[in-house]
Amino acid sequence: MAIKSILTNQEDFTGEFPVTSRTSALWRFNEKTPDENLQLMDSSGHGRHFTISGWSGTSANLIAGRFGRYFRQNIVNPTSEKTHLIAENDGSFFSNLGEKIVVGGWINPTTYSVGQTYIPIFNTRQGPGQPIFYVSLYQGRLRLMLYNSSGTLIYDQSETSTITLKNGGWYFIASIIEVNNKKVQNIICDRSDGATWVSPVRFFSGELNRECIANIIMGMHANTYYYAGGFDDWFLETDSQLTIDDLLLYFKSSLHANGGDAASDVDALAEPGTVTLKATDGEYPASGVLYTRAVSCALSGSGRVAVASEYTAGVTSVSLVETSTSDDLEEWSAWQAVGTSGELQSPNQQYIRFRVTLTSSDPLKTPKLLEIQLHDIPKAPYEKLGFARPVILDKNGAWEAVLENAFDIIVTGEVNGADTLEFKLPFHDPKRSTLENEKQVQIVNDIYRIRTLTDNKGEDGRVITQVYAEAVFYDLSFSAEKEPREFNADTADVPMQYALLGTGWTVGNVTVTTKRTWQCTEKNALSILRAVQNIYGGDLVFDSANRQVHLLTFSGTDSGALFSYRKNLKSIQRVVDTRELVTRLYAYGKDGLTFASINGGKEYVEDYTFSSEVRVSTLDCSSFTNPYQMLEYAKMRLAEYSKPRVSYVLSAMDLSALTGYEHEAWKLGDIVTVDDKELGLLVKTRVVRRQYNLQEPWKTVIELSTKLRELGDSSAQWDKAADALSSAELINRQEIKDMVPFNHLRNSRADDGFAYWVNSGFEVDTENGVSGTASFKAVGVPGMTKSLSQTVYPATRKSYTFSAQIASENLEKGENGQVGVEIVIEYEDGTTETRFIDLI
């Protein structure tokens, strides 16, 4: 799979002119006001800022518009206001002309500017030294003038285009000046109707002033002529590679982008590279719709759209992603929502644009759209594993070579475990040259990355190259280091989203609905995903072709495939393993947390269904901060550990590889039936591991387990550590008892009734307490919130601890019920932050 297009920069969402490596200066005019020096920022990074002459006491202003803000000047009376912009040349502006100069931007002229004879736009005639070019309007027509080093005019052309400049219209104008080829070409585009006009290629004689040190003046010449109207996104490129076609593409592709539009409900300017709902007086709207610029489509196969975002589950979301395509950037297909896994539904054409809906049910919160990727998924050369061959992909994800002479091709896969590929190729095969470390290899729809290449020469002189490759999802272990993160009563998709942020992968289907409160300390994306599967349960499924990760309650199906002796079963081995049988399981959470207080005083759970013998082990739950969820998790694990592990290892043939036996298809994670009358076996069991021989499907080895609901295969190498007690996070229980923290809460034991508390629905129980004789008590009522609150004023510290003794009797939470502590933190600047600690 190749990435066809990525939208992640500010201009992808706003339609502003993009910065390139050749940009000498770019003025976006997005400031609300100029700085203390009356300067407007150069967004190219070269520090060539504009200084405003004539700001105070004039109509000059920075107005909210389509591309954020724009600069408007001389609206009342140009000859008296005389506002203009000055970029002082430090001598470097034109020091590297290269082959081509390109200058242009957006203008919003008034009647004055299109009616007067001479209206300066982009001017180098004000010195010091001699000019190089002068862009202006001559009686409402675009005019370009060029000069040599002595200040002599060597080119002067006023264009008569099919586009007539009008009062209040927005026009994109640009000039391309080929320095050595002595060519000139101009472009004018009308935003109102999308019309474009390109001038003929024109020529000039003489040499441009390569020594120009003149300042750049916008909107003024000779302290006599002034421009009245607006400027936006003006740029200068030297040694440019831009062509007229590039400028036309920019204009047409940016027409619909609205991330900077003052009239839209989305904002792509407040956080560059991020799209949020647009806040008004600190509050966000319930929804907003982003239109992006158009980018390349033209897929070689099918397409998939991946969206990276930050959101609060159940509160904010990117709720809808739609696409529209075109071959000419003028006629567009109808908007189509992408499929549930991001499948592109729009017709495959040259260009694509996106319409994304952001929503929030909380006016104080907004989702954040970070990136949109369009993936090109070429049709796989093989549709099933049997008799398939490795396909080498180039750096763009396209097919480079099919290795027809590969042999001993083995794909090894495990549920929640390894996924590797091994094969051999004759060293002198002509396609051996395509094998390189880190190159990608495709097997049907799965993508692998070559990790080792080993060339072996035998006694017979034959040289064989042996290849070992790992599924591309292994690259997630090399992701940027992740910071520790607290998850509070979150479903699995929330930590998965955090893990995959910035990796190019996205969260797919998540059918596991468990909620967990825990602390994630893993450092990379893959380890976080493994931790999520271990804590939440389910099957972690990596879709390498689509770069998606799914967490499914059960990843397989009841395939209906039958393995029986003399049919497709060559050998069978049944293993009943009690080496790791456990009947009593201790669990310790974060900072020595136990669930004894809600489990009859016991720090362990027991299950003697299979054996009455006490067999003890300890479960590392150091990520857990909620005793209720830790108890649930420990019971789930013990249900697995307290029974013998029964597995079957079969040497079997994949009949589905043969014509007429397609109904015998099965895959990793599926349920199959094993029938062997001699061993007295007739059992439905699950494929938990396979060692598939692509060249000789009858040599395939599969491992089956009767454990139909997979809760995490602890035999996988990366899960080993999950079942060993790590003492690094534990605190001795006596040490906890010896801790005497300062309590900021007053009357925390209810000794004085509701003194110091604001009560809504609670009562004081004078008979039952823990450290005293009283406690606060609430009887839940469906659909009603009961609360008890107190405001405290602690000293400034790096961290605080909240603790409470909770008793829960006959507690049943409704669909949206919550039991916990809500903390509202007010900072010195008056801002607030709300956190909820889920207790059950």
UniProtKB/TrEMBL annotation:
Residues 390-471 form the Prophage endopeptidase tail N-terminal domain. It comes from the Bacteria. Gene3D superfamilies: 2.60.120.200, Galactose-binding domain-like. Residues 473-718 form the Tail spike domain. SUPFAM superfamilies: Concanavalin A-like lectins/glucanases. InterPro entries: ConA-like_dom_sf, Phage_tail_spike_N, Prophage_tail_N, Tail_dom. This is Phage minor structural protein. The lineage of its organism: Bacteria, Bacillati, Bacillota, Clostridia, Thermoanaerobacterales.
